[in-house]
Amino acid sequence: MLDTSVFKKLAHNDTGQARGHQGGIVIPKAISQFFPPLPAVTAVGGPTVDSILSADLFVDGQRVDTIQTRYQHQTWGGTRPPERRLTDNLGPLRNEASEDDILLFTKDLDDDGYIQLHLLRKGTPEYAALNAKIGTSRWGPVDPANPPVTITQIVEAEEYVEEEAAEPPFAFDEERGTTETTTIRKARDRAFRGKVLEQYDNRCAFTGRKFISPVGNMVLGLDAAHVIPVSEKGSDHPANGLPLTKDLHWAFDRGLIGVAPDRTILVPASVRALPGNEFLSDLHGQPIREAHDANLRVMDEALQWHRQNRLVE
Fold first, then answer.
1. What is the Cα 35 distance to its own chain's centre?
2. Which of 75, 98, 109, 112 has the fewest CB neighbours in a 10 Å radius?
C-alpha cells in the first residue's frame, strides 16, 4: 500500500548537472521521518549505515527505470557527521533534473524495501500546480492534512498491536472512531499486517501461498484481512485477522468466501455454481491454516459475524 508523498525542491548538487555528482540526493532531516526505516546511526567514524531499496523512477509521469538504490547515513569514510542520502543508479532521473525541479518520494507501507521517485520538471502543468501549492517551502508533505506515516508512528503502532495481542481476543473496539486519525490508522494497519503474517509464516490462511522478494526478503502479495472490518469497529487484535492473498482478500470482503463453524473454507453454493469460479470451488471444505499462538487464532465470534453479515446466499 503506497503512502502519501513528500517532496523536495532539488538543489543543484542533487542533479546530474552538478560537478562530480556522485553523492546522490540529500534527504533533509525534516522529511527523513517519512522515509522507510533505516538502522540507527553509528558514531562519527563508524561504518556507513544503509539499506537497499527497489525504486521505480518517473520523469513527468513516465516511468524511466526500475533500479536498486542505496539509502544511507553517509559519512564519507567517517570524516563528516552522518547525512541521509539516496545514492546509486539514479542517473535516469538525476540526469533529467535541474535545480528547483520537484522530486516526490513515496514509500510503500507494506514493503520497507520499496520507494517511488517522481520528478516534476519546471515548465510542466504538474510542476506549476504543485509549486503554487507549496509556495516557498523547499521540502515537506505534499498534503500536510494527510501526511505520510512517520517512523515514530510505525514504532508506536507496532507496540500497540503487541499490547493488543497480549490481551484475550476481543472482536470489537467501540472507541476506535474517537481515537484514530488517518495516519494512525495506516500505521496500525501496517503493524496489524506484520503481526498476523508472522503468526502464519507469511502464508495465506486459505492456500498456503507466500511470495518473497529477493530484495530485502519482503513479503509481497499478502494482506491481513480484518474479519470484522475497521469500518464496523472491528478490533486490531490479531485474532480478528486472517492472512490472505489480495484476490482472496477481495473475495472475502465481498462474501464470496468465508469460514464455516468447523473452521473449513466455506464457498457458498451460489458462488460455486458460476462458471469461472473453479479456483474458489476447489477451496471449499479445505481446513484453514491456524496461527501458531492459540491466543491469536482467528476468533469464532469474528468468523460468525462474517458469515452473518458478509457471506452471500
1. 11
2. 98
Residues 6+ positions from 22 with CB-CB distance below 8 Å = 87
Name the pTM for this structure.
0.86
Contact 109, 190 (CB under 8 A): yes
**CA distance linking residue 84 with residue 49, whole number of Å:** 10
79 phi-psi bin (left φ>0, alpha ψ -120 to 50, beta other): alpha
| Residue in 117, 119, 145, 99 with CA at minimum distance from that of residue 36 | 117
Domain covering 6-141: architecture? Beta Barrel (2.40)
**What is the signed CA dihedral for 174, 172, 187, 217, rounded to 10 degrees?**
180
Q: What residue ranges do the domains of the chain occupy?
A: 6-141, 151-309
One pLDDT digit (tens) per residue for the chain, 313 residues: 899 999 999 999 999 887 765 568 999 989 999 998 876 655 555 556 788 899 999 999 999 999 999 998 765 555 666 678 898 999 999 999 999 999 999 999 988 888 999 999 999 999 999 999 999 999 999 999 999 999 999 999 999 999 999 999 999 988 766 667 889 999 999 999 999 999 999 999 999 998 877 765 666 789 999 999 999 999 999 999 999 999 999 999 999 999 999 999 999 999 999 999 999 999 999 999 999 999 999 999 999 999 999 999 8
Rounded Cα gap, residues 47 and 76, in angstroms: 10
Which residues sit opposite 57 in a β-bridge?
65, 117
Classify residue 91 by its DSSP letter: H
Query: Amino acid identity of 277?
Result: N
CA distance 37 to 195: 17
Q: Is 206 left (phi over 0), alpha (psi -120 to 50) or beta?
A: alpha
Instruction: Judge contact between 281 and 270, C-beta under 8 A.
Output: no
The set of long-range contacts for 134-137, using a CB threshold of 8 Å and a minimum separation of 24, is: 134/7, 134/9, 134/102, 137/9
- For 291, the grid coordinates are 496461527
